[in-house]
Here is the input.
Amino acid sequence: MEDASMEYGESNKDNEVAPALIAVHPTQESVAVAVGSELRVFDLRQGGAISLEDDSSSGSLHKDSIRAIRYGANGKLLVSAGDDKLVKIWSTESWRCITTVCSEKRVTAVAISHNGLYVCFADKFGVVWIVNLDMPDGQAAVNKKAAPLLSHYCSIITSLEFSPDGKFLVSADRDFKIRVTVFPKKPLDGAHEIQSFCLGHTEFVSCLSFVCSQEYPHGFLVSGSGDSTVRLWDISSGHLLDTCEVGEKAGLLVSNGREAECYSAVTDLCTNPDGSLVAVAVQRQVPDYVLQGIILLKCDHSGRTLSCAKVVSIGGGTFIPTSLRICSSTRLLWMVTGVSNLRVSEQPSSARVRVISGLTKSNDQHEPFVLEDNEVPAGAKLLEKLQGSLSYSEEVFLAAAEAVKTAMSNLLIKKQYSADKREFRKRTRNDKKIKQ
Amino acid sequence: MLENEANPTFSKSTGLPRKRFYRARAHSNPLSDSHFPIPISPQNVDYSVHYPQFFPSSERSDSSKKIQFADIGCGFGGLLISLSTLFPQTLMIGMELRDKVTEYVKERILALRVSNPGQYQNVSVVRTNSMKYIPNYFEKGQLSKMFFLFPDPHFKEKNHRRRVISPHLLDEYAYVVEVGGIIYTITDVEELGDWMKACLENHPMFEALTNEELEADPVVKLLSSATEEGQKVARNGGQTFQAVFRRIAPSL
Ligand SMILES: C[S@@+](CC[C@H](N)C(=O)[O-])C[C@H]1O[C@@H](n2cnc3c(N)ncnc32)[C@H](O)[C@@H]1O
Here is the structure.
């Protein structure tokens, strides 16, 4: 009876493309971009492209689309994971893969504890797993087994985030839910104590981040959603503090009564180091219209409000960022757009990287501005590595926009069984036959 | 998606919900049975619909009475009916996935209210998937009793994750049940009984009631006798296996 509602989106794999992702080392020693199965890293200290070394037993890099990349807070680790069900943990010193963890299901999100001892990853069935990295050196390269930590019942987890004080692990899912779990002393035994649920979004939650400042070191949670809002939360109580309608404020909503057919989904967001700004990427689900750029929200901690500050548009072709990160030390906002598996071309998947400067303070006189390619740190050398080439075509951007749209609607649409398949599934269920 | 709502759900000044937002999911799979409204959060549960005598209007404050008992997979509602008169001042709700069964329980309660004026005002039922939406209905520590009577067994190993008692779901139940609150389970399937007991025993936030405590609790006697499933098992002379556990504070 409850069968259909339990099965999830292994939706048509062939049509599925992965949006490009970006991650920035906390002190900007390197920048990583994932496009499809390819993980590209540029070392800004040495000023050169890095070639990753992976001699774990699986013997190769990722074999399918990467869905999550992230640096640890202390910058020593980079984690990458995705559809090939592998979680790869890289040393940012040697750029070797120090551990490969096999997941039972495709991986959708990753997080690293602030002390760098634990890697958490979420799978397509809503289970969050944990791996302990604190092992004698000899065991480092061995394939590790993960222990289950917590679960969102059969819902795809879209984002995982540790609270600034490391006491809580926050997980968001496509069933509108944000769960705040106490991160236990012995996490390998599971995380059983739920601190709160942050409930208020009316569509899938796509991204999470914390804003914190000296006055508010515990910070506040910000979340972006398919309901075209960014919301501000107190995680200790789960209280909704403010809601910012980004679609509306950015002048995205049309006023001709077509609202019902269109919607703008928040696809990614990130926060600046002093917690005053939130950068938001929005994907509009209407043909012929895309927001070319990002929306900046201002966060007032004492007033607990979130408001639209400005839209930063990015000239030079259609640029809809698929992923955003602000470097905590340089305060540069790094953006990427791109997509994997473009069947149309045999070219290596290409991407476009852009950088915004001037996000220093919300009340600063300086306007944020987009760096020209030659102003980007390491310039052409970096772009050539991370983008795949220096040239890029408009086609890529349109495809990237399409890819984000697909990725977003995959979060909305559950697996559709044909009537036949359903009948078959019913007949082959024997737990029903035994009872009743 | 919600139909064109632009207002924030909560009033800034009062912190209370502006409207009763019940969402209807336009995008859910029509083949699946998830076509029921889900309250955005526990504050959005409209008590006036469920308990009109206790809540003549849909306005509710933080100090208002809250639902304290939940019967998960309540079936035809026999337990709720028995509990209603045993705890006339306690609000209780049944959660049931099957549409027709839920409708039946609704009708049953309405009929009882009519034939017994002033009684059965504290019971209601809602159609929902309890495995997904418990946190949408109950706040942290809101419940004092939760019931899982004769749940579906899901025998196959790979279907164990569909069981309504599982290690991960217990984390959610521990969240909605107050410290000192009690979870009652019973089944006629020995394997499932062992499973439910093991899950509860292994959970750091639950401890078993002692035999004396079980004896003293009037509710325990209802587990095997009050529900339709229980009566069926009893008629056939079947054995039952119960596990009754108290929510405790996690040790630090
Ligand atoms: C075997 S019956 C027992 C009913 C009742 N407790 C009794 O003892 O008579 C199990 C009930 O749980 C319901 N159920 C199963 N999964 C559920 C879910 N996820 N949420 C709510 N109800 C569910 C079924 O529809 C069914 O009515």
Observations:
- The radius of gyration of chain A is 21 Å.
- Residues A 1-2; B 73-75, 95-98, 101, 129-131, 149-152, 164, 227-230 surround S-adenosylmethionine (CB under 6 Å).
